[in-house]
Amino acid sequence: VQEFMTFTSQLIVDRSHIGSRAAVKEQDYLCHVCIRNDSLSGVAIADSEYPSRVCFSLLDKVLDDFGKQVDRIEWPTGSPEVIRYAGLEAHLARYQNPREADPMSKVQAELDETKVILHNTMESLLERGEKLDDLVSKSEVLGTQSKAFYKTARKQNSCCEIM
Q: Are the CB atoms for 32 and 55 separated by under 8 Å?
């Protein structure tokens, strides 16, 4: 898996332009690449369900942090064994849940929850409205029947006199 990730990452970086961002589908994964104008690049490999915007946000933060901690002279020649960058684990741990790591995803999740609640409320209001319509139609029927009963009762009582 490590060899696949390394090979795919190098291939995508080599085929991408400086100052670009791209998401490339490889098997069941999306490979997100971000190459800054200073040629520093990063690749994040995630499943297709992980939001691309959050991946690019992670890459931006990691590249900025890496650029501050590691001397620029070491970028092209350094290897993972030589360059010590301690911030990666913290960033990866923070971005495990995209909703908590990204404020926009968190807002979107809250909007989705609110939308579900509103749909349920609207459905219950519509059901209540249907029940009210049923009650109105039943009350109209009862009104009509009570008028008919009243007329019938008046006709029957008109032939007799009360003394």
A: yes
CATH 3.30.450.50 fits 1-126, yes or no: yes
Dump pLDDT digits (tens) for 83-106: 777 888 888 888 887 777 777 777
Per 3-state DSSP, what percentage of the chain is helix, strand, and coil (rounded to 5)?
65, 10, 25
Predicted local confidence at residue 33, as pLDDT: 92
Output Rg (C-alpha) for the chain, integer angstroms. 35
Q: How many CB atoms lie within 10 A of CB 33?
A: 24
Q: What is the pTM of this model?
A: 0.59
Dihedral over alpha carbons 31, 34, 35, 38 (to 10 degrees): -150
Q: Using an 8 Å Cβ cutoff, are 22 and 33 in contact?
A: yes
Residue 47 near residue 28 (C-beta atoms within 8 A): yes
Return the bridge partners of 43, or none. 33
Angle between helix axes 52-69 and 87-94 (nearest 10 degrees) is 160
Burial 66-79 (b: 16+ CB within 10 A, else e): beeebeeeeeeeee
